[in-house]
Amino acid sequence: MAATPAGAASLERLRAWPGDHRVVVGLSGGVDSSLTAALLVEAGWQVEGLTLWLMSGKGACCAEGLVDAAAICEQLGVPHHVVDFREHFQRQIVDFLLDGYGRGVTPLPCSRCNREVKFGPMLAWSRSERQIGRLATGHYARVRHAGAGEALPVPGDGRGRHQLLRGLDAGKDQSYFLYDLPQEVLGELVFPLGEMRKSETRQEAQRFGLRTAAKPESQDLCLADHHGSMKAFLDAYLPPRQGEIVLQDGTVVGQHDGIEHFTIGQRRGLGVAWREPLHVVRLDAALNRVVVAPRQEAARSGCHVQAVNWVSMAPPEQPLEVEVQVRYRSEPEMAWMIPNPVSPGGVAAGDARRVELQFASPQFSITPGQAAVFYAGEVVLGGGLIES
Prior knowledge:
Strand order of the largest sheet: 12-15-14-13-16-17
Number of strands: 17
Largest sheet: 6 strands, antiparallel, barrel
Structural class: alpha/beta
Number of helices: 9
């Protein structure tokens, strides 16, 4: 069976890749990472598989994923390594989530997991244990490496930087979750699926006869997949804490069993009967209240963003007009990005990592704890966490 045009193009890029062709592939046991390993092997790379053991029990990050990842490595004839990261995952992700929900924000675990659990630690393990300095994954994103040709134009200073780009498949693009990766990690990444569509991935996996070719997609969040739902995960760790659902003037319109079960912009499932639809506009952790309002009162014209990671450009000194994505599935919206004024004595710690966003049109679901990622077309300029 011949390679699809997209598969053939990926193989051509991999064969022409400059430098060392030794790579560790992060294997979750899904079709995307499985095909990544298969394409690299076919392209002549020296491949080793690495699976992180993140949780005990069922699910993609647990027993099922470990078995499938091991079987793929056996089929491809490459070594497979399993590293126990359960304690690290508990500290960096589970505890982080519980702390955020307790403070009335809606944390975004995936970008944090990519930085603190997956990419950086996997690359460090590969270097120390296998003396391999390159990492590949099945993410639908692209990296334009510094020195590999002309960089794509960005509104700020992008000289000498590795650029992170959207995946070609708009429906699967995962660049939003990768905004927090540092330059030293981006420089060592290989994304063989970045210019493929999901349908082509399935076809290529069938061509290789991979056992994961028809494996269903997991949920976006592995914890929800593991526990059955995000509500079940939270209920397993947080005790019920009943409180009031109120309008912005304090009028009580309902009751809730925990603010952690609500998110900004939510309309369905409030359990409130009112003369017009209501949406969540604020989670008040201090008073244990869910604040709701009609849609026309829920939009916001701007927000502050903290812990910004500048990816494809240096920290800007002047306001820039950029596209901003405030949720994984949301459409990018135009906004002015205004950097924090630099301290009189120079750039103080944190100055370059905070910006204000002023949107061209009011936005409906600006959620503290979620990421605001800045784009110039297909290029990820940077991103950070919405603060207020």
